[in-house]
Amino acid sequence: MIDYYETKAHPITKRMVLEAYKKVKSNKGSAGVDEQSLEDYGKNLPQNLYKLWNRMTSGSYRPSLVKRVAIPKSSGGKRILGIPTVEDRIAQQVVKAYLEPKVDGTFHDDSYGYRPAKNAQQALNMVEKRCSNAYPWVLDLDIKSFFDTIDHNLMMKAVEHYTREKWILLYVRRWLEIGTMDGNEVVGKRLNGTPQGGVISPLLANIYLHFTFDKWMELKHPYIRFERYCDDIVVHVRSKKQAEFIKDKISERLTQCKLQLNESKTQIVYCRNHNHLERGDKVQFDFLGYTFRPRFCPTKDGWKLLFTRCMSTAAKRRVVSHLRSMRIKHQTGSIQQLAAKLNPIVRGWINYYCKVNQWTTVKVWWILHLKIIEWVRKSKKIGKMRAINWLRSVYASQPWLFAHWTFINP
Q: Is 6 helix (H, G, I), strand (E, B) or coil?
C-alpha cells in the first residue's frame, strides 16, 4: 500500500500528487502529445502517481512537449493553445496548489481572472457600475499576443518574489521553456511566452501582470480605476484627454516589461447614455463576451436609454457555431434524451449570458429551437408544421423540458 504522506528530498507529498490528480480529473481536458487520456492514465493510477511523485521529489521530472492546437476565433484568425499531457497537468496542479495560496492574497482587488474568490460576473458588474457613475470614458486595452511574449527572466523574477523553493522555480522554468509539437513538427525550446492551455499558465499570467500592470497602476496612478481579467483590461477615466495620457503611459510600461500594446485593437470609448457619434467618438466595447453600449432597455418607468451590457455578437456566433457542430438534427433517442444532452450546455450559457438583459439573447434560443424542430421532423418523419405542433404539445405538458424554453414560447 502506498503511503501518501511519505516525502523525499523536495517537500512534495504523495497526498499533494493525489489531490492534484483529482483536480485535473474533475476539469477533464483532452490528451497531449502522448495521446493518453485521463481514462487511460487512471487504469494504472497508483503506479503512475508514484512514478510522477518520485520524479518530482528527486528533481528528475521533465515535462513532455506541449501539443499545439489552433482554434478559430470569432473575430477571425486563430487562437493557439498548448495542451500538456495528463502527467504534466498533474505536475502543474501540484505547483499551482502550493503557490496560489501564497500569491492570491497579494493580488489587486480589481484582478478578477482565474482566482479562487473572483469571477467574470464580478468584473462585468464593476465595469457597468463605473461606466454608469463617475467615469464617462473607458480605455479598452489589448495586449498584443500576451501569452506568446511573456519574458521568461521577468517571469522568473516575479515568481521568486513569492518563493525561493528550488523545486517550484525549477519546474516553472522547465514549463516555460518546453517546446511544442504541431502535428509531426517539433518546435524546440521556447525563448519567451507560456503555452495558453496549461494548468499553471493563468496563475503565471496573473503574477506577471500583477507586477507589470496592477501594482504599477496602484503606485503611479492610484486614483484611476480598472478591471483586469487575465490580459483583458478596461481602464476608467474622466476625460478623453486623460484616456489618451494614460494610454501612452501604459504603452511605455508594457514596453519596459517586454510586452506591446495592440494599437489597432485598443480603443477609447465614451460611455454615457446618449449618442456621441457626431463627435466621432466610439460608444461601445466588448469585454468578456458582452458588448457595453447605449441601448434602450425596459425599466419600471418604461423604456430608457442606458449604457449597459448584453451578449456580444461574437459570443452569439460562438454559441451558434457550437450548436451547429453538435449536429442536433442527427441525434438519436427520445426527446427527453435530447434535452438531457443539450440542457447542461445550454444552462451554462444561460447562467453566464442571461444575468442581465435576457431579451437580447432570444434570437440565439430561437435558432436552437429551430434545430430541435428539424430533429423532430427527422425522427418522426413528419412535415414542418406537424413538427411545430407536436413540439408545442410537448411544451404544454412539460414546459421545463428544455432549459431555453424559459426565454421563448414555442
A: coil
CA distance from start to end of the chain: 58
Q: What is the pTM of this model?
A: 0.91
* 69: phi then psi, degrees, rounded to nearest 5: -130, 130
Quote the cell numbers at residue 80: 493557439
**Cell 428539424 belongs to residue:** 374
The answer to whether the beta carbons of residues 329 and 368 sit under 8 Å apart is no
* Nearest-5° Cα angle at 288, 318 to 151: 105
* Alpha-helical segments (H) within 302-361: 313-325, 335-353
Angle among Cα 315, 321, 322 to the nearest 5 degrees reads 90
| Least confident segment among 27-31, 36-40, 328-332 | 27-31
Beta bridge partners of residue 81, listed in sequence order: 69
Closest CA to 46 of 71, 14, 68, 75: 14
Tens digits of residue pLDDT in 244-275: 999 999 999 999 999 999 999 999 999 876 65
Question: What is the distance between the alpha carbons of residues 253 and 264, in angstroms, rounded to a whole number?
Answer: 18
Q: Do residues 87 and 73 make contact, with C-beta atoms less than 8 angstroms apart?
A: no
Q: Which residues of 337-365 are buried (b: 16+ CB within 10 A; e: fewer)?
A: ebbeebbeebeebbebbbebbeebbeebb
Tell me the angle at which helices 152-160 and 201-209 cross, rounded to the nearest 10 degrees: 80
158-to-12, 205, 210, 231 alpha-carbon distances in Å: 22, 10, 9, 17
Residue 65 and residue 30 in contact, taking contact as beta carbons nearer than 8 Å: no
Amino acid at 27: N
What band does 5 get if pLDDT is binned at 50, 70 and 90?
very low
Give the up-direction half-sphere exposure of residue 198: CA atoms within 13 A in the CB hemisphere. 33
User: What does the alpha-carbon distance between residue 133 and residue 118 come to, in Å, rounded to a whole number?
Assistant: 22
Paired strand residues for 111: 228
**pLDDT at 62 exceeding the cut of 90:** yes
Q: Give the C-alpha separation, 379 to 47, whole Å.
A: 47
Phi and psi at residue 261, in whole multiples of 5°? Answer: -75, 130
Reported as a pLDDT band with limits 50, 70 and 90, residue 276 is low
